[in-house]
Amino acid sequence: MSISMYSASVPVFKQMLLALADVLAKAEAHATANNIDAETLLQARLAADMFPLVRQVQIACDFAKSVPARLAGVDVPTYEDSEQNFAELQTRIANTLAILNGFTAEQIDGSEELEVLLRPGTPKEKKLNGQTYLLSYGLPQFFFHITTSYALLRHNGVEIGKRDFMGAY
Q1: Which CATH superfamily is domain 10-166 in?
Q2: Is the four-CA dihedral 128, 132, 134, 139 of positive or negative sign?
């Protein structure tokens, strides 16, 4: 039995974004309860050359909306990347979930051989078929940023665990 491109993408993105929203709520509560400036968590990094938490969340949302959009052959919705607090990140996640809720299996299933062009017109231009794009590029990128967001908060004392990371499934 094979799995559909829709089933391998949209429900996975939704599960993990809902979990991320819950983790961010716990982070905000942790900051409030411990008199930690929220900006400390929002700008947290594990290394000087990595993006801070706020950017990790933005990028996770970007992959969650762009992968299904490309597979469905529709324009990728864009955001301004202007979030500066937990409430704005929650809004970004909610907006991304609303976009995901707009996709149907009929739009995405059958996109395995669809040609996806990454970074067109640049030296890093790459062509992938839809299945490779989803499984070898889109999902790993998404999970990298979700995992990094979780790790940044855990490293900074937010009491979260594996169940928080996984969310409801």
Answers
A1: dinb family like domain (1.20.120.450)
A2: negative
DSSP character for 120? T
**Alpha-carbon torsion 89, 156, 37, 165, what sign?**
positive
At residue 38, the pLDDT reads 97
Pick from 154, 133, 126: nearest CA to 67: 133
Mean pLDDT per block of 10 residues along the chain (169 residues) reads 92 98 98 97 96 98 98 95 98 98 98 94 94 97 98 97 94
Output the pTM of the full model: 0.95
Q: Where are the domains of the chain?
A: 10-166
21, 74, 110 from 99: Cα distances, Å: 16, 12, 20
| Residue 166, CA atoms < 13 Å, CB-side half-sphere | 5
> Are the C-beta atoms of 116 and 129 separated by less than 8 Å?
yes
Q: Which stretches does DSSP call E strand in 83-152?
A: 115-118, 126-129
CA–CA gap between residue 7 and residue 135 (Å, rounded)? 12
